[in-house]
Amino acid sequence: DVQLVESGGGSVQAGGSLRLSCAASGTTYGRQCIGWFRQAPGKEREGVAGIYTIGSGSTYYADSAKGRFTISQDKAKNTVYLQMSSLKPEDTAIYYCAARSSGYGCYPKGHYTYWGQGTQVTVS
Predict the structure, then answer these.
(1) What pLDDT digit, counting tens, does each position of 15-36 carry?
(2) Fewest CB within 10 angstroms: 18, 53, 109, 123, which?
(3) 77, 101, 94: which is closest to 20 by C-alpha?
């Protein structure tokens, strides 16, 4: 099993920045890919960014995140970050990190096996 704990959410004014953290534990195989997803009220969950946590550390971004969000990791801390800048009100959502093995790639789309509890981001 894999356990994921998000932190770092909060309220910020438009144009501001936040850094979300996802602390991961459990089997390495189950968290080869870690992705960030978000769900706004009344909307479907959407993928934001993903990272291959071993090897090359390749990163992947949804179009909505390109240029404003950066996913990164600290392997020593088993933590994945999502640095968000130039935030907009439409970025308001609950942000979740999720993990899966790398068999289906690390793009933030499709089935992810393990999920954190989410952290609220509000941009006004």
Answers:
(1) 999 999 999 999 988 999 999 9
(2) 109
(3) 94
